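Entry: Molybdopterin molybdenumtransferase
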Amino acid sequence: MKMIKTIEAVGHVLCHDITRIIKDVTKDVAFKKGHIIREEDVPILLSLGKDNIYIWEKSEDMLHENEAADILFNICKGKNISGSDVREGKIDLIADVDGLLRIDVDRLNMVNSLGEMMIATRHNNFSVKKGDKLAGTRIIPLIIEKEKMTEAIKIGRNEPLLNIIKFKRKKVGIVTTGNEVYYGRIKDSFGPVIIEKLSEYDVEILGQEIVNDDLQNIGQAINRFIEKGADMIVCTGGMSVDPDDLTPSAIKNTGAEIISYGAPVLPGAMFLLSYYKDNIPIIGLPGCVMYSKRTIFDLVLPRIMADIKLSSKDLALMGHGGLCLSCDICTYPNCGFGKGM
């Protein structure tokens, strides 16, 4: 920090706010710290009684907050993301498309541990809409050591910390099992729920087949949707451990690889995930999806729509934050459900 005459300050950077006070009218900040002084600013500064001001003494080893903010932004910015204008060492990251937000949490923590800079984000693996704010970044001091920003660059060198994977268009088949529905004893309540949740994405519903509790019939219904070009098949009913609940066995008999039968999420413990020929998800939904506002289906569906192949480890990690509190007024996703992933 260095004091110089105001008339010689054009092009220099203010080190502190300059306050303007007009009696009984206003008290505000006329010039904020970090402002680069222009020719037209000089008369205003003099009128505020500032014959001398403190400016930032530029050094080859230091960076101004806005220069450093650009570096921090570029470390963060990945696919389908843009940024706001830089202001006072701050840049926001904005979604350019609807999609799944992916964050390298470990490297994010590494950057935030460097000190004098910060990145605050939304939660990882959640869907976002075009125009949504994804993260806010800021350089804390007015000037920061260039060496510190070099450390941040090393952390973000190979891959940006944030990316958005655009949702894909998918063809979906629905297989509903159960003698009680097939024979008309009760009305199907599962199909409308699934269709409503899928409607949040770009999907083509190929249809819904209702079949009885017969292993072969369930498998044939799944195979018919595969033959029609389904990108995903959702099976409902017959997902508990009762002897006559045959859906898991029918899914396995199609040749699909079972990734997991069961997940540490409530509601949703009896969830089944499998992949046919390694790329077509066939999922079995437990009964809770029919009557609970939010379940494991809400946590898994965004990743499936972004073509992220889930592993058993991915499902295991959902246990942290996997308890829905079933609030009277559901505020999801603005709550803790699924936030530990």
